[in-house]
Amino acid sequence: MNMDQPPLRAVIADDQALVRTGFKMILAADGIEVTAEAADGAQAVAAVRRTRPDVVLMDIRMPEMDGIEATRRIIGDAGPAGTRVIILTTYDLDHYVYAALTAGASGFLLKDVTPEHLVSALRLVQTGDALLAPTITRRLIERFAPHDEPQTIAPHRDLSGLTPRELEVLRLLATGLSNAELASRLFLSPTTVKSHVGRILSKLDLRDRVQAVVFAYETGLIAPGEVPGTPAVDRDLHVWDADRLR
């Protein structure tokens, strides 16, 4: 942990007290402050509004209010620069996970995550990055997204605000290409690609690359199964970008 920066602050939302206690011990051991615990979604929303943490570890299936609705409310309150949500799930390919991503979550973790990866994941999303590799997000979307008419684009997320180059970058990003692969494909420097991605997220009011992939599919910019030139995906769904978690 960088001693020059304030400690990362987190809320843990899970209806099982034992799970909350275990995660709290892991985070505290690494200097992460747990500002509150919540046993249901309503408590989680209230805790976030009260303590304004950096990250929420959010279970999906909880009484009173589930994790999806709680995520939607937290993200609606926080805005793009506010609290991030990481979904906790028991299963590695759960349709609830897709719903949570579309509600604004920045990624998901299996509940059997190792302490090392749990801490690394929280620190990753705190920086504004996405926990899931775009290829994994694309697999989720292709399995669970509606395959009929694309959703209506909200005015503040109008694709007409993007330049032709930015549209090209977004479409390729949605196929799962990394910045390095985008740079190679478009004959641009990695720095230029990073700038394009940053402008896309800013113009579309998106939090991270995961949300950009979701957005590209839901607006019809790219259709499920339409992945031109995408490298084959051979990772299991629950394995995220390991290099970025080291």
Largest sheet: 5 strands, parallel
Helical proportion, percent range: 40-55%
Spatial separation of the terminal alpha carbons: 13 Å
Give the topology string: H per helix, E per strand: EHEHEHEHEHHHHHH
Question: In what order do the strands lie side by side in the largest sheet?
Answer: 2-1-3-4-5
Q: State the shape.
A: globular
Total of helices: 10
Structural class: alpha/beta
- Kindly provide the radius of gyration, computed on alpha-carbon positions and rounded to a whole number of angstroms: 18 Å
Q: Would you write up a description of this structure?
A:
The chain is an alpha/beta fold and 246 residues long. The chain has helices spanning 17-29, 41-51, 67-78, 95-103, 115-126, 134-144, 164-174, 179-186, 190-204, 209-218, and strands spanning 9-13, 33-38, 55-59, 84-89, 107-110. The chain has a five-stranded parallel sheet, with helices on both faces. Helix 4 links the parallel strand 4 and strand 5. Helix 2 packs parallel to helix 3 (67-78), helix 6 packs parallel to helix 10 (209-218) and helix 7 (164-174) crosses helix 9 (190-204). The chain is globular, with a radius of gyration of 18 Å.
